[in-house]
Design brief:
The strands form three sheets. A two-stranded antiparallel ribbon has the order 1-3. Strands 2-6 form a two-stranded antiparallel ribbon. It has 19 helices and six strands. It has one domain (32-415): Serine Threonine Protein Phosphatase 5, Tetratricopeptide repeat. The N and C termini lie far apart (45 Å). Helix 6 (127-152) packs antiparallel against helix 8 (174-191) and helix 8 (174-191) runs antiparallel to helix 9 (206-219). By secondary structure, the protein is mainly alpha-helical.
Length: 447
């Protein structure tokens, strides 16, 4: 898809990252107004594409810093805000914590504007574009809320652009947000095609919605629906790729990726060192957790030696500069490998131990590890699933942090390696800047 022709539209006051009342000014002559955005298919598609661009600003804040916050990464630099993650003492004024909140809510606001604009548009937009546009916006809104509730807990649930509500919205319960999320994803799954708009896997299709549904159901302990949705994705159009081809653009395993015109991910830039000590190193805890012969350690962990000391860093992404052709890389959000692990956990909870082990062995086989016996207990199976998720999904999204929280093991694991860890640390603080502008926001315990 040739996104170089994207018109970066200032859609809805998106530079106002928190939900503050906007000053009313006339739009510049070269800027599309909301009325014009929703009066033909081309401008609607431009608006939809623009929803995805904000995600690029969040990757680094989430993946590297949450790796430091847990037991995945060690830090070799001195940035004070980042050291708060290392020490598991986050301040309410931490810029990175605030940027995550603001970026997700900025995208949510834009999604709400797209939904409202398409629902009220009376001419110029074909029914198919209207339907798919609303579905994509609902998918992205659900994705943002999935992250927000898992970082912050209860957060404001905004499904409108009405500033009279958004400026003072209270925190909604996590349960109600999941309810909205599952509703949005159900609509997206029904209304999106199995085919990707433009051919590349950089916009949501129905299977991306199904994937996130399977994950939402897993987090809500709805094992039957998690198994059902993950099976639907596994049996659809995707195939596991070899370890070094997973993260290339449009890989057969990719369900949803973030597009980049230069063929490299922000994560490649952040993790790969050209010289000197890497800023983000694989922790000894993670490094020692790989089984002997695990090809994921061999292919996804790189080493550099500085002053006689060995440093290891994430190497899932191989590019840190412009790369063309088949070796170009896009940031991976959803992939088939994780879907097998979601289904394995759902099956284990449904007491289908043989089905769970079959899924684990598929992932282990790719890593050149021996099969797990089908005779193990349910408790042993759960331990193995956690271990496989750690080995397979390190430095992707915030999986390790979210996994430790939802399984109730976060205090047990992180108390051992983090002297300042408190049970309250399992939630990030609500940014103080947001509490100042919204009198109905309350702070998380312990901050």
């Amino acid at each position: 898809m040739r996104y170089k022709y994207i018109i970066l539209i200032v859609l809805f006051g998106a530079t106002i990252l928190s939900c503050k009342k906007m000053i009313q000014i006339n739009p510049p002559k070269n800027q599309l107004t909301s009325e014009k955005i929703f009066d033909n298919d081309a401008t609607v598609n431009g608006a939809i594409i623009n929803l995805y661009t904000g995600l690029a600003n969040i990757d680094g804040n989430i993946i590297s810093q949450v790796g430091l916050y847990t037991d995945e990464l060690d830090y070799q630099s001195i940035d004070p805000g980042t050291l708060e993650f290392v020490n598991s003492i986050l301040s309410t004024s931490n810029t990175n914590v605030s940027n995550i909140w603001k970026s997700f809510y900025s995208i949510i606001y834009q999604c709400n504007s797209v939904i409202e604009g398409l629902q009220s548009s009376t001419h110029g937009v074909t029914d198919s574009v209207r339907k798919s546009g609303i579905a994509e916006a609902k998918f992205l809104r659900a994705y943002c809320y999935f992250n927000l509730v898992n970082f912050y807990g209860d957060v404001p649930l905004l499904t409108t652009t009405d500033v009279n509500y958004t400026a003072t919205a209270p925190r909604a319960t996590t349960a109600s947000i999941y309810e909205q999320m599952i509703s949005d994803l159900g609509d997206a799954e029904s209304d999106l095609s199995a085919y990707y708009p433009g051919g590349e896997k950089v916009r949501a299709n129905k299977w991306a919605a199904s994937f996130l549904l399977s994950k939402a159901y897993l987090y809500n302990k709805d094992w039957a629906n998690a198994e059902k949705k993950s099976s639907a994705v596994i049996n659809s159009i995707y195939n596991l790729a070899s370890l070094n081809n997973i993260f290339i653009k449009n890989s057969p395993e990719a369900i949803w990726q973030l597009w980049n015109q230069n063929g490299f991910s922000n994560l490649g830039v952040q993790f790969i060192t050209s010289s000197g000590v890497p800023s983000y190193c694989i922790s000894n805890s993670l490094l020692s957790s790989f089984e002997p012969g695990d090809q994921r350690k061999i292919n996804w962990v790189a080493q550099t030696t500085v002053s006689g000391n060995n440093y290891y860093y994430p190497y899932k992404y191989k590019n840190k500069s412009t790369t063309t052709g088949n070796t170009g890389e896009y940031t991976m959000y959803f992939r088939l490998g994780e879907e097998y692990l979601i289904r394995a956990e759902a099956r284990m909870q449904l007491k289908d131990i043989s089905g769970a082990i079959s899924d684990l062995n598929i992932i282990r086989s790719r890593a050149m590890l021996p099969n797990i016996a089908f005779t193990i207990s349910q408790d042993s199976c759960l331990t193995l699933i956690e271990k496989e998720r750690r080995s397979e999904l390190f430095a992707e999204s915030a999986n390790r942090f979210f996994d430790l929280k939802r399984t109730g093991r976060i205090d047990q694991v992180l108390n051992v390696i983090k002297p300042n860890w408190r049970s309250e640390s399992k939630l990030y603080p609500i940014p103080q800047s947001e509490i100042k502008v919204n009198p109905n926001l309350t702070q998380n315990p312990g901050y």
